[in-house]
Amino acid sequence: MSKKYSSFQSPKGMHDILPADQPWWERIRKEVKEATEAYNFLRIDTPIVEDASLFKRSIGETTDVVEKEMYAFESRGGDKLALRPEGTAGVVRAYIQNGLAHLGQPLKLYYEGTMFRYERPQAGRYRQHNQVGFEIIGGENDPIYDMQTIIPIYRILEGLKIKNLNIQINSVGCKECRSSYKKKLQNYYKHNLKDVCKDCKRRVNENPLRLLDCKELGCLEIKKKAPSIIDDLCDSCRKHFKGFLEYIEEMGLPYQLNPYLVRGMDYYNRTVFEIYADGFDFALAGGGRYDGLVEMLGGRSTPAVGGGFGAERIVEAMKALNLNMPSKLKPKVFLINIGELAKKKSLNIIDEFIAAGVKVSESLGKNSLSAQLRAADKEGAEQALILGQKEAFKESVIIRDMKSGAQETVPLQKVVAEVKRRI
Ligand code: HAM
């Protein structure tokens, strides 16, 4: 390859997932598959690109996600589109567009997919990340569904052996109770205006709740003494949150009340949550209730709740916790071929083994017997099949036990049955 081409790099904050890392990802997918089947979530896939205004309207124009982090662009036809920064808005759009309300109340959906946010890259924060999300749309506005979105996420993290999990919870109330809280918050920040960042100075008037999820150090200090929303919840939101607390107590999951948890998107109301593991600064998962979103995007008033976790962060946590890398399935059989005729026959032989459910490995590019035997050893195969020129000509093959070195020549027609008898 010429130097010019080899100097290409992946875009900043976006990473390749190389074969060596794939077993971690497969572990996550397996856990997700088991949990979604067990808890009856149906899979949905939505486009990676949506109308930019979908995200502006649902996540909020003055949120960091929309204001600073969205990959927005104009298509050749002049449509204003954006790479999805998260999955909930697209799922709700699909729910309304396809009339999914008729599928059942509530409808339990899940998705796995790539999200894009133009963030400052650092550990656990990327510009392209993969998220697994769960949404429960419709049914009653019952806190039991808040719990039902947390359970599969928690069980998946637990199943992946991530220890010392802690669920941070809060209620951000409804429009009514939030408005009196916002005034209190504005008052408090107006008194501390000189110590907050430039964006927060603006947020005080534009979107005061966003003051609480600013990541700047100075603003984090000011947040420590800010008024708590819990004191301002209306009776109905208080009752809802109490109901949720009863469910989480009943399930015995570890939780902590965090009165400053507001999450970075405007669509949330009532319950919000984030899941952390000891020793990691970043949240592994997050979510909450979004009862106003379906209606805001043009559907009927429909309660909804959901949450999602970031797969990259989970892989990082699993590695940092020194969890054992999931072992690769070893091939039972390694096919060695020497000479042109043997090579020609080898692809059919491999297919016959695959059809019989036996995993075969091979190194068709190597010529010498010793190099191929070394490769068979390295892969941990139990049996090697040696197909030399003589064997290929006579329609036979040598079966070699890799442990004892014992060899036997068998007719090619019977090799699958012979190998199956031995393993
Ligand atoms: P979120 O908290 O923004 O929520 O993202 C969910 C999870 O995705 C985070 O907890 C984190 O693990 C991962 N994540 C987010 N941004 C990044 C990033 N830049 N790099 C790596 N991982 C990241 C949502 O997106 C909501 N849609 C969740 C939800 C579903 N709420 C209701 N339903």
Summed up:
This protein has 423 residues and is an alpha+beta fold. The protein has helices at 3-6, 22-38, 52-59, 64-67, 88-97, 143-159, 175-191, 198-206, 217-223, 235-251, 293-296, 311-320, 340-355, 369-379, 389-394, 415-422, and strands spanning 42-43, 49-51, 72-74, 80-83, 107-116, 128-137, 165-171, 255-257, 269-277, 285-289, 304-310, 333-337, 360-362, 383-387, 396-401, 407-411. Helix 2 (22-38) runs antiparallel to helix 6 (143-159).
What share of residues are in beta strands? 15-25%
Question: What structural class is derived from the secondary structure elements?
Answer: alpha+beta
Number of strands: 16
The helix tally amounts to: 16
Q: Tell the overall outline.
A: elongated
The radius of gyration is 28 Å
Give the fraction of residues assigned to helices: 25-40%
Query: Gap between N and C termini, in Å?
Result: 43 Å
Overall average residue pLDDT = 94
Which sequence of strands runs across the widest sheet? 1-5-6-11-10-9-7-8
Bound molecules: histidyl-adenosine monophosphate
Low-confidence stretches: none
Q: Characterize the biggest β-sheet.
A: 8 strands, mixed
